[in-house]
Amino acid sequence: MPSGIMQGTIIKSVFYLLSGLTCVFAFLVVASRNVFHSVISFALCLIGVAGIYLYLDAEFLAMAQILIYVGAIATLFVFAVMLTEKVKMPPERNRYILISAVVSLAFLMLLVNIIKKAPWKVSAALQLPLSLTQLGKLLMSTYVLPFEVVSVILLAALVGVVVVGKAQK
Amino acid sequence: MIPQSHFLIVSAILFALGIFGALSRRNAISILMCIELILNAANINLLTFNKFSQDPQGLGEVFVVFVIAITASSVVVGLVLVVKIYRNARTVFIDKMNLMKW
User: Fold this and answer.
1) Which of B8, B15, B20 to mutate to test the interface with A (most CBs of A within 10 A)?
2) Are A22 and A52 in contact (CB under 8 A)?
3) Do B30 and A139 touch (CB under 8 A)?
């Protein structure tokens, strides 16, 4: 069926475009000298990651990623940049840049080698992707204890932020 | 269908870039952003294995929910500490923060 094949190629090429853009924006986060520019590319990179989540059958998590990361965390980073230093800054690198580049490149090569050679277990009959109802039921039945622990951690972070950020007398 | 290894390679690239940034930047806010990149790479990995080897079905998605919650709280605490240190020491460069050194 030619139209199905056409659709498949479009889906594939959109995936590769998306992952390429995500990697480019991640590189800009690391490489740009201006901190504000790196915050902007950080938000765009997170939107790209949300697109990759869509390819992994996790629609709810993609939406949550955009809401939480791009809506809240990137905004927080913008506020932190505005509250601290001038945007134009003196050298943004420390003196370990060369050795850290070598280390991370070697680690990337190692990871790619492992990923290509390892016999990943792929289940023969892929089941349907998890629906949002099933995810909610899992969170409220099987994984209810870690769910409650996470809510306690969120509360602790909230209280801790208020205590630390309070103006000193 | 897109093979499993391509998702894993994208995540490996994100992870390596995050490691490189966290090791080489001086600004504490940039370092927090690079740590976020690393955690996003971990999330992509979790969802990939959740899709391709569904051993207990949905475990990966549940785990990603927890990772997102933990990440949000950790980054909020980190940014508050950075802003607070900036108020006291007038710097965000981690190699200038030496208040607790003798």
Assistant:
1) B20
2) yes
3) no
